[in-house]
Amino acid sequence: MPAFADDRPVVLFDGDCALCSGSARKILKHDRAGRIRLAPTQSPLGRALLVHYGVDPDDPYKMLLIQDGVARQRSDGVLGIAALLPSPYRLAVLARVVPRGVRDRLYDFIARRRRRFPGATWCAMPPQGVDLSDRVLG
C-alpha cells in the first residue's frame, strides 16, 4: 500500500467517468472545510485501497468512502459523503430510511448507465478557487 495520511475521509472515484468526475468536482467545490480528499480508482493509491478493502479494482461500478478506517461503498458511501457536505447535500442522509437493498439497486442502476449521462467529455480542472495541494491523492 502506498503511504498516505489517513487523517481525513478519502473518496475513491472512477476518473474515466464524466458523471463520477463531475461528482468529485462537486465534492471539492462544496466541501469548503477541505476535509474530503479524492483519489481516482485508476491511480496506484486508488487501486491499492480498493484491494485493501476487498473491492475488485477492475470493477468500474464501485466508488468507496474511507473514513476512520472503515470503507463504505455503493449507497452507503454516497450517503456518507452527503453527511460530510453542507446542506442541501446533507439532507440526502434522510434516504437512510429506505432499505439498503433498494438504495443499492438504484445505485447499481445508475452506475451501470453512468457513461450514458450527458457530458461524455469532462474537464479535469478543479472548481475555481479550490486548492488541490492536499485534496487529490494518487
In short:
With 138 residues, the chain is an alpha+beta fold. 34% of the residues lie in helices and 12% in strands. It is built from 4 helices and 4 strands.
- Approximately what portion of the residues adopt beta-strand conformation? 5-15%
Identify the overall geometry. Answer: globular
Number of domains: 1
Order of strands in the sheet with the most strands? 2-1-3-4
Helix content: 25-40%
* End-to-end gap: 12 Å
Mean pLDDT: 83
| Structural class label | alpha+beta
Count of beta strands: 4
Largest sheet: 4 strands, mixed
Using only CA atoms, what is the Rg? 14 Å
Q: Spans of 5+ residues with little confidence (pLDDT < 50)?
A: none
Could you spell the SSE succession in H and E letters?
EHEHEEHH
What are the SSEs and their pairings?
Layout: E1 10-13, H1 18-30, E2 37-40, H2 44-52, E3 64-67, E4 70-73, H3 74-84, H4 100-113
Parallel strand pairs: 1-2
Antiparallel strand pairs: 1-3, 3-4
